[in-house]
Write a structure and sequence with these properties.
- With 1254 residues, the chain is an all-alpha fold.
- It contains 61 helices and 4 strands.
- Helix 5 packs parallel to helix 8.
Length: 1254
C-alpha cells in the first residue's frame, strides 16, 4: 500500500511538472500513455477530494490552477516578500538560436539569484515553504533553496532529457550557470536529484531510456563544467563527491556504447578544473575505474586510452591503475614500442565509431609522437644540408632518432599493420590520422609516413573511380600537395616517396597529375639541387625497390582493385627498376621547364642536370662504381649493375634536349667579357673532355677508329669555333659561330647514339666550318679536305646539302640546331641550294599501278594542275629504286625517324629534268641518294611508318627551313621562286593524296609568310617577265569551276576533303593574283611595259563573256579593279565593248557591277579627279550609248536583272549630267533607243533631256 501511494505521488509530480507551462520540456511518455495517467490521477483526486479538502486547501488550489492555466508568476501567489520569478524563460532555453538560449539562461539565473537572496533574508522561511512547495519534496536535499529555485533546478534537470529542438543545450547551460553561482544548491542533493528524476527502469522503452540516459549525461556535464566539484575539494579535501561523480560517469559509460565517449569527455572537463592532487587521490581511486581500464584493451576502448593519457599528462605519475593501457614506468619510447602498440591496436581500431569525426585519442597520440619543438629545428638544418653533395642525411640528435624510431613503429604497427589491412572505415581513419601528422611532420620523416603499403593502397583506390574510398584518397593527395606548398624540401621528400613504391608510375596508375604538378612548382635553386641529388641517389641505389611483396589483399578488398593487369605488373615487379630510372631520366630536364630563376641560378641547375645525364648516359666506371675527379673536385657514382643501353640512349636524348632548350633560352650571351660565360654547350664539351681523360672512366660503348677520329675532330672544331666566338664579340658572325657549335655538339651526341650513320655528315659539316671560318689550328687537317676549289660546289651548297642529309634521321634537338644554323646562314644561300630544297617539296612517289583517282569531279582540274605555272612534273622516285618494297619487314628504332642517310654504291639511273637546271651531276646525285635512301626503313604494320609517310615527314622538316628563309628574306626575288614551287606543290593532286597535313602546312606558309607578310620582293631583279606568267596562270586557275554535285551534308569524307581542296586552290589563285599585282604596282613600271599585263586581263574578259567554262567571280575582278585602279581604267573601253556585244544576258548584267566599280575609281569620294572621269567618259561616250541601247533593246526577263539594268542606267545618267555631257550623249544615242529609254527609265531619262537643254 505504501509503494502504491508513492507511485501515485510520483505520477502526480510528473503530471504537475509536465503541465506547468508551454515552455516546459515534454516528457518522453507517449500521448496515449500520458492520457491514461491523467485519467487515473483524476479518478484518484476525485475519490479523495472530500477527505482532503479541509486538510490541504492550499495544495488543492495550486493543483487546480496548474490544470487550468499557467500562472504568470510563482512567488507572488504565496508571499509578497519574494521577487517575482517568470517561468517563461524556460521556453527560450530550447530555442535553436544560441544567442536566445544564452540570454534566457542569464535571465533565469539573475531572477533565481534575486529570489534566493530575498529568501535568505526571510526570518520565517517555514511560511513560504509550507505555502508553496511547487513539487519540491521535503527530502530532496534543497532545503536551503527558495521554492522557485527548487522548482527551477528540478525542471532544468528534467529539461536536459528532452529532445525538443535545442532543449538539452539550453537547459544544460542554465543548469551549469545556476550551479556555479548559487551556492545554496548542494552537490550531494544535485547528484541525488539527477538519479531520482532521470532514473531508468526496466519498464522504459528504448527511446524513453535513451532520453533519460542522455539527460543524466548532460546534467553531469553541467555539474562538471560549473566548477563546484573543484570548490568542494578546496573546501574539503576528503570530499566523497568527486569519487562518486567519477564512478557515476563510468557506470553510465558502461551502460551504452554511445555514452562512452561523451562520458569520458565530461570526466576530462572535470580533470581540467581539478589540481593534480585531486586526480591522484579521488579520480584514480573512483570505484569502477580500475576495472574499466583493465578491460579496455580486450574490448577495444579508445576512450579509456584517451582518459588514461589525459590523466597521466596532468598527473605525470606512474600508477598501476592504468593497467595495460600505459607502460609502467611511462615514456614515449615504451608507449610506441612495437609490443605495446600491438596491445593498443584493438583500442585504436575501434575508434572508427565516431566517423567522419576523428576520435580525440588520435590528436593526443600525435602530440606525444611528434613534439612541437621538432619541426622548425629539423627543417632549418635539413634545408642547409640539402646542398652538400652525396651526403645522404645529416647527423640526427639522439632525441630525433628516438622520435623517428617511434614514428616508424607507429606507422608499421598501427597504420600499415592494423588500419590499412582492415575495413574501408579503418582505411579512411588511416588517411585522417596521417593528415593529423602532416602539420607537425618534418620533411625528413616523410619517407616513414608515406610507406610502401600506404602508397600501394592509394594507388589501388585511385586506379578505380567507383571504389568506395576514391574521394578520400583524392582529398588526401590534395592535402598532401597543399602541405608541400612553398616548401621545396617537403616537395622533394613527397615526390620521392610517391615514386619509389610505384617505380615512377604513380601518375599513370592513379590517373592523376599529382607528381607532375608537384614537379612544376619548384621555387628555389636549393630545392632543385636537392631534388637532383635525390634522383641521383635513387638512380644509383639498387635497393630502391621495396622488398615487400605486392600483395593486393594486404591493402585492398573486392571493391578496390588496380585498374589494369599492366599496371599491376609495373608496380609488382621489384626487379624491373628501369621503370623508375626511366622516370628519373625524363624528369631531370622537365625541372627547368617551369623554373623561374635568375640566369646564374638557372645555369647552375642546368649544369647539375647535364652532369647527371652525361655521367650516366655517356660514361661508365671501369673499376668499381665510384670515381673521383681531382680536376673537377667531384665524385661520380654509377649503379653497381651496368646501366642498360636503352637507358644510356635515353640519357643522351635528354641531354640533347637539354642543350637545345638551353640554346633557345639563352640570355647571357649579351654579356661581353665574362670570365665564365653561361654557355651550357661550352661547359658540356669541357666536361666531356675532362672525363674522357680520366683512365678509370670509359665511354658507355667502345668506339671504332673512324668514330673516335670523328669525335676528336668534332671536339677540335668546336673548341676552335668557341674561341673565335669569344674573340669576335657580338654580331652576326658570333651568332653563326654559336649556331654551328651547337650543331656540332648535337652531331657529336648523335654519332655516339647511332654508330656509323652520321660519320659522313659530320665530315662534311667539319669541312663547311673550316671553309666558312678558317682558323690556323684547323688548317692541319688531312689531305681529303685539300681539294681543288674548281672541282667542288660552293660552300653554302655543301652546307645546305649537309643540313638536308641530317634532317631525315634528326631528333627534335638536332632539328632545332639545324634550324638555328640555317637561320643565320640563309642570307647567303645560293639559288642552287634553294632549288635543292624546293625540289624535295615537289618530289612524289609513283602512284600505284591500279590507283583510282580521288574523285570524278577532279578529272578536269588534274590536267591543268599538273602543269601549274609551267612547272613540269619532276622525275618520280620509283619504289623499286630503293631496293625495297612496300611490304618490307625492316623495322626502325625511332618512330620519329624517316630513314637513314646511308652511302649508296650505285648511281641513279634517272636523268634530271629541265627544272633541275643549275645543279651539276654530283649535286643531283647526292640529292637523289639521300632522297631515295630515306625510304629504306619502313614498317608493314597497321599505323606504322611507310615510305610515303617518311617522305611527307621529310618534306615537313624542309618546309620549316623554307619558312625560316621566307621570314628572314621577305624582300628577295627568290621569294618568287619559293612561291611558284609552293603553289605547284599545293595544286598537285598527289600532295593532297599523300598528306592533308602537308597541304595545310604549305598553305599556311603561303598565307603567313608571303601573302600577309609586311614585305614583298623588291628591287631591279624583280622583272616583269617573271611576274607575267605567274599572273596569267593564277587568273586561269581562278576561272576554273568548283564542282560539287551533292549537297554539303551528303558528301563523304573523301568528297568533302576534295571540296575543301578546291576551295583552297581557288583562294590560292585569288590571293596570288592580289600579291603579284602588288609587286607589279610597287615596281612602277611604265605603261608601255604593262601592255602584256593588260593583254592578260583582256583575255580573261573575253573568256568571261564568251566561254561557259570560265567561272571567274565578278567580285574577284571587282576587287582587282578596286585595288589596282590603273587596270580598270585602262580596260574600261574594252569592257564596255564586250559587255555591249555579250551573248549571255547574265554575264552582261553581272558585268555592270564591274563598270560601276571602275567609274568609282575614276571619281574618288573626295571630289578630286573630275577631269580624269570626264576625259574617260567622253572618250567612251559612243560605247556607253551602244551598251545602254543594247540593254533597253534586249530587256532582261527577270525582275531582279531589270532592276540592276535600271540602277546602272540611272547611275550613268547622273554621271553624264554632273559632267555636262548630256547633250553629246543624247546626240550619240540612237533615236530608237530614245523612245525605249523614255518608256523603261521614265523620269530619269526625261531629267537627262532637260539637263541637255540648259
Amino acid at each position: 500500500m505504501k509503494k502504491k501511494m508513492k507511485k501515485e505521488k510520483v505520477k502526480r509530480e510528473e503530471f504537475v511538472d509536465g503541465d506547468a507551462g508551454p515552455s516546459d520540456a515534454p516528457t518522453s511518455v507517449k500521448p496515449m500513455e500520458r492520457k491514461k495517467k491523467r485519467k487515473g490521477i483524476d479518478k484518484e483526486r476525485h475519490r479523495t477530494a472530500a477527505g482532503k479538502e479541509i486538510l490541504e486547501p492550499k495544495e488543492m488550489e495550486i493543483e487546480s490552477k496548474s490544470h487550468v492555466s499557467l500562472a504568470p508568476s510563482l512567488a507572488s501567489s504565496s508571499s509578497g516578500d519574494l521577487p517575482e520569478f517568470h517561468i517563461g524563460v524556460f521556453k527560450d532555453l530550447a530555442s535553436a538560436d544560441s544567442s536566445v538560449r544564452e540570454a534566457a539562461a542569464e535571465a533565469l539565473v539573475t531572477e533565481l539569484q534575486e529570489v534566493q537572496k530575498a529568501y535568505d533574508r526571510l526570518e520565517t522561511k517555514e511560511l513560504v515553504d509550507g505555502g508553496l512547495k511547487l513539487e519540491a519534496e521535503k527530502d530532496d536535499g534543497l532545503n536551503d533553496c527558495a521554492p522557485s529555485l527548487r522548482y527551477a533546478v528540478r525542471r532544468l534537470i528534467r529539461g536536459v532529457s528532452s529532445s525538443r529542438e535545442c532543449a538539452r543545450q539550453g537547459f544544460a547551460l542554465g543548469l551549469t550557470i545556476s550551479i556555479g553561482v548559487i551556492p545554496s544548491i548542494k552537490v550531494d542533493s544535485l547528484l541525488k536529484l539527477i538519479v531520482d528524476l532521470l532514473e531508468v527502469n526496466s519498464s522504459m522503452k528504448g527511446q524513453e531510456a535513451r532520453e533519460c540516459l542522455l539527460g543524466r549525461l548532460f546534467a553531469y556535464g553541467a555539474l562538471a563544467r560549473s566548477g563546484r566539484l573543484a570548490e568542494e575539494w578546496i573546501s574539503d579535501r576528503n570530499t566523497p563527491y568527486i569519487k562518486e561523480f567519477t564512478s557515476l560517469l563510468i557506470s553510465l559509460a558502461v551502460k551504452k556504447r554511445y555514452l562512452q565517449e561523451p562520458a569520458v569527455s565530461v570526466i576530462l572537463d572535470l580533470i581540467e578544473k581539478l589540481p593534480p592532487e585531486a586526480l591522484a587521490d579521488h579520480v584514480l581511486k573512483a570505484p569502477g575505474l580500475p576495472e574499466w581500464f583493465e578491460g579496455a584493451t580486450e574490448v577495444g576502448n579508445p576512450d579509456a586510452l584517451l582518459l588514461a593519457l589525459k590523466i597521466h599528462e596532468k598527473v605525470s605519475v606512474d600508477s598501476a591503475v592504468f593497467s595495460k593501457l600505459l607502460p609502467n614506468p611511462f615514456s614515449p619510447n615504451k608507449l610506441f614500442a612495437v609490443d605495446h602498440l600491438s596491445s593498443l591496436a584493438n583500442c585504436l581500431k575501434e575508434s572508427t565509431f565516431c566517423q567522419p569525426r576523428v576520435h580525440s585519442v588520435w590528436p593526443v597520440l600525435v602530440n606525444i609522437l611528434l613534439p612541437d619543438t621538432l619541426l622548425q629545428a629539423e627543417d632549418a638544418v635539413s634545408a642547409s644540408n640539402s646542398l652538400k653533395k652525396y651526403k645522404k642525411s645529416r647527423k640526427c640528435s639522439s632525441s630525433e632518432e628516438e622520435i623517428a624510431k617511434n614514428l616508424q613503429c607507429f606507422i608499421e604497427v598501427i597504420i600499415d599493420g592494423s588500419l590499412l589491412l582492415s575495413s574501408h572505415d579503418r582505411k579512411h581513419l588511416a588517411f585522417d590520422v596521417l593528415l593529423l601528422l602532416l602539420p607537425r611532420l618534418p620533411a625528413s620523416f616523410v619517407p616513414i609516413v608515406l610507406s610502401y603499403k600506404l602508397i600501394q593502397c592509394v594507388m589501388d583506390i585511385l586506379s578505380t573511380k567507383d571504389s568506395w574510398l576514391f574521394k578520400v584518397a583524392q582529398y588526401f593527395l590534395k592535402e598532401l600537395s597543399d602541405w608541400v606548398n612553398h616548401d621545396d624540401v617537403r616537395r622533394v621528400a613527397v615526390i620521392v616517396a610517391l615514386q619509389k613504391p610505384s617505380n615512377g608510375k604513380f601518375d599513370c596508375i592513379t590517373r592523376t597529375k599529382t607528381v607532375k604538378n608537384l614537379m612544376s612548382d619548384f621555387q628555389t635553386e636549393s630545392g632543385c639541387m636537392l631534388f637532383i641529388q635525390n634522383l641521383l641517389n635513387m638512380f644509383v641505389d639498387e635497393s630502391h625497390a621495396s622488398e615487400e611483396p605486392s600483395d593486393q589483399s594486404q591493402t585492398t578488398d573486392d571493391n578496390s582493385e588496380i585498374g589494369s593487369i599492366e599496371d599491376k605488373d609495373l608496380v609488382g615487379t621489384n626487379g624491373n627498376s628501369d621503370f623508375l630510372k626511366t622516370w628519373i631520366i625524363e624528369s631531370l630536364p622537365s625541372i627547368l621547364k617551369y623554373l623561374k630563376l635568375d640566369l646564374e641560378a638557372n645555369f647552375r641547375v642546368q649544369k647539375e642536370v647535364l652532369k647527371f645525364l652525361a655521367v650516366q648516359g655517356l660514361f661508365t666506371a671501369s673499376l668499381g662504381s665510384e670515381v673521383t675527379s681531382f680536376e673537377l673536385q667531384e665524385k661520380f657514382r654509377w649503379p653497381k649493375a651496368a646501366t642498360s643501353s636503352a637507358l644510356c640512349r635515353m640519357c643522351i636524348e635528354q641531354l640533347q634536349l637539354l642543350l637545345a632548350n638551353a640554346q633557345k633560352g639563352e640570355g647571357s650571351r649579351s654579356l661581353p667579357n665574362v670570365l665564365e660565360p653561361n654557355d651550357l654547350g661550352s661547359y658540356f664539351m669541357r666536361f666531356l673532355s675532362t672525363l674522357r681523360n680520366i683512365p678509370s672512366i670509359s665511354l658507355f660503348r667502345p668506339l671504332e677508329d673512324e668514330e673516335d677520329n670523328t669525335l676528336k675532330k668534332l671536339q677540335a672544331v668546336e673548341t676552335s669555333l668557341s674561341r673565335e666566338e669569344r674573340n669576335c664579340g657580338l654580331g652576326s658572325d658570333a651568332n653563326r659561330l654559336h649556331a654551328l657549335r651547337y650543331l656540332l655538339i648535337q652531331l657529336l651526341l648523335q654519332v655516339l647514339l647511332r654508330p656509323r650513320e652520321f660519320s659522313e655528315a659530320a665530315s662534311e659539316l667539319i669541312i663547311c666550318c673550316k671553309k666558312v671560318f678558317p682558323a690556323p689550328d684547323l688548317l692541319d687537317s688531312s689531305g681529303e679536305d685539300d681539294l681543288d676549289s674548281d672541282a667542288v660546289p660552293a660552300v653554302m651548297d655543301v652546307l645546305v646539302d649537309t643540313l638536308l642529309s641530317l634532317l631525315p634521321e634528326s631528333t627534335v634537338p638536332m632539328r632545332t640546331a639545324i634550324e638555328q644554323v640555317f637561320k643565320h646562314f640563309c642570307d647567303d644561300i645560293t639559288d642552287d641550294g634553294l632549288l635543292c630544297m624546293l625540289r624535295v617539296i615537289r618530289r612524289n612517289l609513283k602512284p600505284a599501278r591500279h590507283q583510282v583517282s580521288e574523285s570524278e569531279n577532279d578529272d578536269d582540274m588534274d590536267e591543268d594542275d599538273e602543269d601549274f605555272l609551267k612547272i613540269e612534273e619532276d622525275e618520280v622516285i620509283d619504289k623499286a629504286e630503293t631496293g625495297e618494297t612496300g611490304e618490307s619487314d625492316e623495322q626502325t628504332d625511332d618512330s620519329e625517324a624517316v630513314g637513314g642517310v646511308e652511302e649508296v654504291g650505285k648511281e641513279s639511273s634517272d636523268a634530271s629534268d629541265e627544272s633541275d637546271g643549275g645543279m651539276d651531276d654530283d649535286a643531283m646525285f647526292r640529292m637523289d641518294t639521300y632522297l631515295a635512301q630515306i625510304f629504306k626503313e619502313r614498317k608493314n604494320q597497321a599505323g606504322s611508318e611507310t615510305a610515303q609517310y617518311q617522305l611527307v615527314l621529310f618534306k615537313l622538316r624542309v618546309l620549316s627551313l623554307l619558312e625560316i628563309y621566307l621570314h628572314e628574306n621577305p624582300d628577295k626575288p627568290q621569294v618568287l621562286v619559293v612561291y611558284s614551287n609552293f603553289a605547284g606543290a599545293l595544286t598537285n593532286p598527289q600532295t593532297a593524296e599523300s598528306s592533308e597535313q602537308l597541304g595545310q602546312r604549305i598553305w599556311g606558309i603561303l598565307q603567313k609568310k608571303i601573302f600577309k607578310a609586311k614585305d614583298y620582293p623588291k628591287g631591279e631583279d624583280v622583272q616583269l617577265s617573271m611576274l607575267e606568267p605567274l599572273l596569267q596562270k593564277n587568273l586561269k586557275l581562278a576561272s576554273k569551276p568548283i564542282k560539287r554535285k551533292k549537297p554539303a551534308n551528303k558528301l563523304s569524307k573523301k568528297q568533302s576533303a576534295s571540296w575543301s581542296r578546291q576551295k583552297m586552290i581557288a583562294s590560292l589563285a585569288q590571293n596570288s593574283t592580289f600579291w603579284i599585282l602588288k609587286i607589279i604596282d610597287a615596281r612602277k613600271f611604265p605603261e608601255s611595259e604593262l601592255q602584256r599585263i593588260f593583254d592578260i586581263f583582256r583575255g580573261v574578259i573575253v573568256e568571261y563573256f564568251e566561254s561557259k567554262k570560265s567561272q571567274i567571280k565578278s567580285e574577284f575582278l571587282k576587287e582587282i579593279f578596286r585595288r589596282r585602279r590603273w587596270i580598270g581604267q585602262h580596260l574600261f573601253g574594252f569592257l564596255l565593248e564586250k559587255c555591249s556585244s555579250a551573248k549571255s544576258e547574265f554575264r552582261r548584267v553581272e558585268a555592270l557591277d564591274l563598270l560601276s566599280e571602275i567609274l568609282k575609281t575614276m571619281s574618288p569620294s573626295d571630289g578630286t579627279g573630275q577631269d580624269v572621269l570626264k576625259k574617260n567618259v567622253k572618250s567612251h561616250l559612243s560605247d556607253l550609248c551602244r551598251l545602254i541601247e543594247a540593254m533597253v533593246t534586249n530587256k532582261p526577263e527577270k525582275q531582279s536583272r531589270r532592276a540592276e539594268v535600271r540602277k546602272f542606267c540611272v547611275r550613268i545618267f547622273q554621271i553624264i549630267s554632273s559632267l555636262n555631257l548630256a547633250k553629246p550623249f543624247l546626240i550619240t544615242l540612237d533615236q530608237n533607243a530614245h523612245a525605249l529609254c523614255e518608256s523603261q527609265l521614265g523620269d530619269q531619262f526625261v531629267h537627262l533631256k532637260k539637263a541637255s537643254m540648259t
